[in-house]
Every structure is written in C-alpha cells, then in structure tokens.
C-alpha cells in the first residue's frame, strides 16, 4: 500500500522489457508474413484430400485442415493478408484523421466543433456494423474490412492528433512563426506535423494490433477476403465445423492472431514509455 | 449547470441526427435500389416496380427519411423483407437474448477487472501488479470469438458441462441463463483486461495527487486512503470505459452470438446481410449507433454528477 503514495510513473513490466518483447514478436510475425511470399513449407492452397485432418507434427508443424492443406503454410500466408489489410486501413485512418485533427487544432471555432462532431458520429459505428453495411453495398472482399477498419480509425486519429497538435501550438516557436507571418497551414506542415509524428506513429502501432483483431473477426463472419486466399479469421470459421474432430484447426489460427496483436501492443506501449512518458499509464 | 446540460443535450441530438442521415444515405440512396437487390439480377422491371411501390421506394428520399424517423418514435420501423414480420418486433425479440448476455458479460468484466486493477495499483511493482499486467496484455490480444471456441472445446465437447450453443428461450429462466454463461465469459475476457488496465492507471494517476498525501498525513488507514480517496477519485475514467464497454459488448456480440448460435441482435444483423434484408440492416445499424451515442451522453452526464469540479468549468 505504501507504494501507492510513491511517485507512480513507471510500471514494473518495464518499458525495455515491453519494447524488446514487442520488437521480437512483431519482427517474427512480419518476417513469417514476408517469407510466405517466396517460401512456405507446403503450397498453402494446394488440396491433398488423402492428407486431410492430420494432427500437428503428423503432417507439417500445425497439422492439416479439412482439405489436407498445410495449416502452418496457411498461417504464414494468412499473416501477410492480415497484416496488409491492417496496415492499409490504419494508413487510411492516419491520413484522414491527422489531416482533420491538425486542422481542428489550427482553426479552432466552428471548424473544430464540426470536425469533432464528425468524429463523434463516426465513432458511434462499431467496425463490425460498418462492415455489415459496407458488405451490403459492395459485397465482401478485401475492400470491406479495409473501409470498415479505416473508417473506425479516423476518429481515433482525429482525437490523438488534435490533442498532440494543441500541445505543439502552445509552444513559443509556433507563436514566433505566427509573428513571422506564417499561415496556419505552413505552421502545421513545418512545425506541428514533425512534432506530432512520433505520437501518431505510436498510436498507429497499437491500432495495427487492434485492426488485426477486428479483421480476424470480420473474416470469421466471411466479410473479408474471399476464399481461397488464406485468412486467420476464416480458418477459425472453418475450424468451428470440425471442432470435436480436429481441435488443432481452431487452436493454431487463434494463437497466431493473439501473438500478432500482443506483439504490436507491446511494441506500441514500449515505444510510448520510451518516447512519451507523459502519457504512460498502461498496465 | 443547466447551461452545460443543454449544451450536451444539443450535441447529443445533433449526433443522433447526423448518424441517422448517414445510415439512411448509405442504405437507401447509394445502392440504387433496394427492390432490385432483394429480387436479384434476374428480376423483371415490372416486378421491381411493383415491389418498389410496396416498399414506398417511389416516394422522394426526404419523405422516406422523415417517415423512417417518425416510425422510430411510433415503433413502426417497416417490415423485414426476409422474415415478413415488423422489424421493431424482431429487434425486441432478439434483444431479449443480447441485452442479458451483454449485461452478464459486463457484470463479469467489472467484477474481475476493477478489483484486479485496484489490486495492481495498491501493490504497484510487486507480484500482483505483474500478474495483472500480464493478464491485461494477453486478455486484450485474445479474440473473444476464439476464446468462445476454446470454451466450447473445454466445457462442451470436453467436460460436457454446457451445451455447445443454441438458446432454449426464457420459459425456463435457469436453462436460458445457463446457455448465456459461456458466451458471456467469452465476451467478458477482453473487457475485463481493458478494465484492469484502465483502473490500474486511473488509481495510480490519482495516487500522486496532493490529497492522498494529506490523507496519509492525517493518519488514515491504508485501505481507507485506497478506497475512499484514491478509487473514488479514479471513478471518472473507470465509468467512461465501463460505459463504452457496454456498447462494444453489444457489438462484440455479433461474433460471439455466431459462435454460440444465439438468436440475438448481432446474429440478426449477420443473417440480414446474407439475406440482403436492407430494412433490417438499416434499423439494426441505427440501433447500434444510437446505443453508442446514448451511452456516451449518459457517461458525459455522469461526469457532472461524479466530479463536482467539472460543473464549474466552461
């Protein structure tokens, strides 16, 4: 209890442990994903009915699925698909969100109010609901999760970049730039953006983890990439049918999702602790 | 005080209005024609025209929007094309599963996450803090629907304590509740993890404030300082997250209801999509968005009640 009145800033699970663990896990996931482009233990989409539903190690590292496809190879290719969708959708969120967020910080008044109200409205749509609406309009495919997750990320980055930009605007060098006759747009590009880039990148790392989680859910429902493109979520969807027969089909893809999300979260938290101790507060 | 309340009320109504316009624009204007989508590509133009008239699609857009909004107040949301019953009744029927499920999950998450976060903060940097930190990092990373599959593997196919899915209805409350236990646990895990994290850092933030030192100097007992002063003042962020979590639980139910085959509103949304039932999708989407907006508004109001300092501001 005495600990509670000490200056409680750094958590035990220290910044370095988190940062390095996050870096190792993320590098592993990204590495396997990139490797899948040139090499997988077996061709991931090749069906081998004679080999179907083999448990781990009997055929391949993680066994085979209902079509005899090698699960570990599917996981590797799935990593690439999952990461690319997550990355593109977070980039959409960053681009639109930071543009609007820094504009809100620069313009204040009515424009700021309108942008923040817009953020509230978009924030009211859980990604899965936007995905269902988008899928009703354009059908399922890679574009559905990209748009749904991208949309859901926009208000996140509006809020983060506005808060960070407001801090920069309070600095003397912004005042000096104003006095020198620079306009709000120039000050934003010359001074605000370079100063908030780090904070935005940290948030983006965490959002990539979240995007992987949401994409897995969407592809579990069949709202993402169409077969035969391997995807972690759909592997889990298929596994449900064979749950008692082949439980390994359900276990491996879930571990893949959890490990990837954990890696990006640890990396984001670690970076935040290292570079921005003011907002530290994660467990 | 009244000024702040009116301001919040105004922005609440405005947000609802914009959200409804957005949904209407997406579901009613963009895809060209709901009747054509319903009937498929092979439909003859006169059949489409007849269905259009039946659905009221021949009316101008603003009339259709206004009658939808008016219907929301009178409970007449139109008929589901695939179920052939009023949508309002359909949503109400499905909520009888989803609301208890979300409430049970929230209860579990709060019962697990809050004490764990307080415990971690009180034993900061000691073993309990490490355990809580590890739990929250892993809990946040685990997909809830996958955790549901693992629960089915363990407690249904393995131990056979619970059925693997389905819902027997509320005629027998005990068996209805039993069917919701595993899905609620699956939904609660990531939320408990988030709550642990938020509670811990909220209590730690408060712990460095002067009034904690004052309380200590007054010679209050440690548990009194922790619960009466630290936790009480950390309630604002905790309540915010709990409020947000309720809406996310309802949305997260889309996945978990599909895993456990529960006839809830999330499964309704999913089924409506596979049947291209745009009337249902539009209303369910509005329900979800409206819920988030209403909960945010209530959370906003609770700040005023919880933190007297905010009443004076602005």
UniProtKB/TrEMBL annotation, chain A:
Its main location: membrane. It comes from the Bacteria. One of its GO terms (cellular component) is plasma membrane. It is found in: Cell membrane. Gene3D superfamilies: MetI-like. The chain crosses the membrane at residues 20-39, 83-106, 118-136, 142-160, 246-268. GO terms for biological process: transmembrane transport. It holds the Pfam family BPD_transp_1. It is a multi-pass membrane protein. Residues 79-268 form the ABC transmembrane type-1 domain. Keywords: Cell membrane, Membrane, Transmembrane, Transmembrane helix, Transport. The keyword Flavoprotein does not apply. Belongs to the binding-protein-dependent transport system permease family. This is Peptide/nickel transport system permease protein. It comes from Aquamicrobium aerolatum DSM 21857.
Automatic annotation (TrEMBL), chain B:
Keywords: Cell membrane, Membrane, Transmembrane, Transmembrane helix, Transport. Signal peptide: none annotated. InterPro entries: BPD_transp_1_N, MetI-like, MetI-like_sf. This is Peptide/nickel transport system permease protein. Residues 95-299 form the ABC transmembrane type-1 domain. The keyword Transport applies. It is a multi-pass membrane protein. Pfam families: BPD_transp_1, BPD_transp_1_N.
